[in-house]
Amino acid sequence: MRSEVNADIPILLISAYDWSDIEDKAKDAGANGFVSKPIFRSTLYNKINELIGAESKSVEPQDDYSDLNGIRILIAEDIDINWEIISNMLNMHGIICERAENGRVCVDKLSSAPEGSYDLVFMDVQMPIMNGLDATRAIRELENSWASSIPIIAMTADAFSENVTECLEAGMNGHIAKPVDIKLVFREIRRLKDSVK
C-alpha cells in the first residue's frame, strides 16, 4: 500500500497483538499508527485525529461526571462478573444501580416500581428466560406510561449495524458495545438525560 499511495496518507494498523512486538517492522513497512483490539470508538476517534493532525475535542468535561450523580439505573444483566464490573464503575461516580438477572425480572421490576424509581435501563441483549429484545418489547407495551417510555440502552457484544438496527426496532433508545467503554457509557447516559429534559 505504501508503494502505491502518497506518503502523506496515514496507514493505521489494527491488531490484537502487542504493538511493541511489531512496532519497528510496522514502521519500516510504512505504517503510521496502531490500534489494538477490541476497538473502542473513542480510541479509534482519537487515533484518527492524531494521524490527520486534528485536535480531538470533547464536549464533555474530562473526568467530571458530577452531573450524573444520583441517577438511578436498572441493569438487566445475567452474568455476575459483567454486573459487578459495570455497577462498580457507575457507583464510583455516584450513579445508583439495581440489577435484574434477566429480561423477565426487568419487566416485572418496571411494571411494579413506583413512578420515577429508575431514570433509565441498561439492557443486555443475550439473556436466559427472556432476552433483551423481548423484554424491551414487553416494557413498551406496559400500561404504565412512565415505565413504557423509560429510556433503554442495549448492551451487546454484537456491534454490527444489523444488530443495532434490531435493538432500535425493538424499542431501545441507544446501544453500547461490550466490553463497555465507560466514557461511552457516560456519553449515552448524558445524551438520553438531555433528551428527556
Write a brief structural summary:
With 197 residues, this protein is an alpha/beta fold.
Descriptive labels:
197 residues, alpha/beta, Rossmann fold, 2 domains, 5-stranded parallel beta sheet, 8 helices, elongated
Number of domains: 2
Helix content: 40-55%
Structure classification: alpha/beta
CATH class of the largest domain: Alpha Beta
Q: Runs with pLDDT <50, length 5+?
A: 55-61
User: What's the overall geometry?
Assistant: elongated
The total of beta strands comes to 7
**Whole-number mean pLDDT:** 82
The CATH architecture of the largest domain is 3-Layer(aba) Sandwich
**CATH-assigned homologous superfamily of the largest domain:** Response regulator
Strand content: 15-25%
